[in-house]
């Protein structure tokens, strides 16, 4: 086997890259763009995305080639010694005021008479909410192993979307899809960071393996992964709202900017999901949304936990909290006024068939978190001691959010999922699905579901990846897909087997395949992919934050969540999964904002700040978890509710709106001094 | 890969002989600071390295009535395994907060003091405690204050061609101990620093006042410490604000620390020390 | 250079270069794949080994420093009844560390329980600080360690009785 190290661009932007390599030691070789067919891996993305850059360098650290050899350390050194030249160009780093050439995707929609409603409004509030770049903290750095077995290409890679990986390799390497076998490997927690980037690494390994005739392994070091692979996109969401004298929303004028870095083939999805979630759970008669994916000469940036929706929830929830401040009302009061009611819908989604259980969520959340008392007392402290010089710097906030089985937008391949289940004579069940690469918590839930339906032992249920990805095609595995769509398919196949059991002898098999139901168009036909709220799980989250008045470090003290997610199949698994996600979501709020210009491995390690001993109290309560009916997803809920709650709690503690997350200790002290 | 020559000296005499032949040889004890500062697959080392962790002479611990003396290769776990009464406050808790157990099992007191890039956690405490270090070189040995490990440019100054062989810590407990670790990381990083203040209070007077702030660079203003030592704990607030302002000004003149947390810490420490 | 070292009870003469980390030497020369060189900074814990009885991050140890030492890796301790207790506790509490950090977490807990048979919460947190993979529920992990201690003590106690 050969190891491969990546030759990277030292330039942010340039044309016609030339790579100079001194004579390599015996057994070592180099592969550059010129050695490969000139097909783009993702031809649908603007100018395409190359396997190795050559004509156009788009970010510092972009892959220009590989050094192959028997020793990984020596490969690293030889790759670092490569000389790179190019016609350097001025990098485009600015993205909040962007040029038209930087727009990778634009979506706009309008609903109702916006201008009229603004005129009718008694209060206007305009704010911009900014989110930083965060690393996904995968369990293992990015990598791929590729080898040829006669005419068949085998690729082992930790990808959330093996089906797409196979299609991309076929296109880029001019191979038949039938000649490529993708073996998705264990991933641990991905937070949607492995949707598409592994395809680039896998294509590089595959190309190198094809040329060298040997198995090739690429495995990034953690530093390399941190500095050069995709992260959560930076976003700036501007919300201008008009509301009546009670605080009822009349108009929302929203501009969503998502900085996708050098490229991201899922830019339309990010924009689409953010736009579809931006109105949150609120009803408003007039809405205008302009949403852009903006390119800049920095590392590729993309999804984090809920493919774009996190940015949207963060902005709208923070805005609703700010609106409450403007009206000197409790945020809960303002939210209750504006919440969607039965029959109403967000942009183009079908109307809700039942009321959102907001009242109950709110009531319970306020009770368990002691929110009204704490909120009032922190407000008093702030009035008495605006600079917080006496030491108590605390805030508390609540936010609302939901998780649906998000449907994707344009590509039909993104919405197909399949499951095949076989029950053998020994009452052992084998479930074949590409979703078998999902989390252990999901597998536990699926196991319980199948065991319950078929009355078999959980230990007798196994998950297996299909031998070949095209036997069971699948869209990407994300948390919401796993916990809603696959869950549904497993239930369906098991019920089908159970039905047949009384008529036919074992072994029995059943297959189920689905395309996620697309939301019907709104009367205006504006937004066919809007969220399917009837399948949503609902969540209210309260976060209490303290700021260390000496160092400015924000410390989450406690998190309370009240969740209505239908039937909870395994309480222990659900709680464990939510607590782990809560920790990750809080880490996003307290981590260092990734700065591509100066980041180093220290920043990656600093993100592990929120150690177990700093863990806040986490209280989770489910509403009617034993009721009959469908189980719904919960894994994304901490990501869509905690950042906004944390930010709003910080706003209360500071007595002013910091307008961005995350905030470093130094910045917080500066804000405290100024308040 | 550039290869290094690695030696395994058995005693200090062999180390000194190696130093005589090559004053630039790297003496590697636990190695956690040197290896941990490199994120690449292979470790980059100088031409010659001596692995000294197993040299018994450098792992001995002696306790007298006046001081605790430790060989430089004593690991943090080794220090923590001493009877709690053997360790002057707050060393035990400071060492327990360094890294994690795996790291403390290899990191040594000598390595912590000899980091060339920055001051690690122990230096400010040992500096306040007036600890001494022994240097041995082919030409002889000498004891010096830990403070000598800080150069005139306020950066770490590790004597060349010699080995820091022992650390001697006075067994003297302070009445007032205040310290805060700053920065976004629990581990040494570009924005981390340690703020330490120790003093005694006798007959309503502040005595033996020491204040050290260290990170990439280190600061201790001995003349200021002397002027504060002897002040009454009931010193008027205005005068205390004056101390804060003087410290702030002095440190600002050096232009090295973010004044915001620093000012907050100074106000806090003086607020606590003076009633 | 050749490093003489005893790994998992077997004396070995392993090939290494001065810049190699111990984790890489053990993986490359002995195919001890429970070890993974990940953060290379002694934080993630995926390279934990026992070196002369003390748990260390083998990414922080130059391979040459292993000379004349005794190394134990997860492959050796996995057969231990203590590890079975830990795995059982994981199962009962439904604590599911990801495949990347599972052995590391077991090593850290094994080390803890062999030093402190009845650990308090602070001891547990100190042990788990060695493995910083964010995959599992922290409270579940603490429960699992407490249960593992209970199972271990029960097993030892019954045997002695």
TrEMBL record, chain B:
Occurrences of domain FAD-binding PCMH-type (ranges): 1-174
Gene3D superfamilies reported in the protein's UniProt record: 3.30.465.10
Pfam families in alphabetical order: FAD_binding_5 (PF00941)
TM spans (from-to): none
GO function terms (MF aspect): FAD binding; oxidoreductase activity
Protein name: FAD-binding PCMH-type domain-containing protein
Species assigned in the record: bioreactor metagenome
Lineage of source species: unclassified sequences, metagenomes, ecological metagenomes
UniProtKB/TrEMBL annotation, chain C:
Claim: Metal-binding is one of the keywords in the record: yes
UniProt-listed Enzyme Commission number(s): 1.17.2.1
GO molecular function, one term: metal ion binding
InterPro entries per record: 2Fe-2S-bd (IPR002888), 2Fe-2S-bd_dom_sf (IPR036884), 2Fe-2S_ferredoxin-like_sf (IPR036010), 2Fe-2S_ferredoxin-type (IPR001041), Beta-grasp_dom_sf (IPR012675), Diverse_Oxidoreductases (IPR051452)
Keyword Metal-binding included in the entry's annotation: yes
Uppermost EC category: oxidoreductase
SUPFAM superfamilies the UniProt entry points to: 2Fe-2S ferredoxin-like, CO dehydrogenase ISP C-domain like
Gene of this entry: nicA_1
PANTHER family for this protein: OXIDOREDUCTASE WITH IRON-SULFUR SUBUNIT
A Pfam short name: Fer2
Name of the molecule in the record: Nicotinate dehydrogenase subunit A
Annotated keywords: 2Fe-2S, Iron, Iron-sulfur, Metal-binding, Oxidoreductase
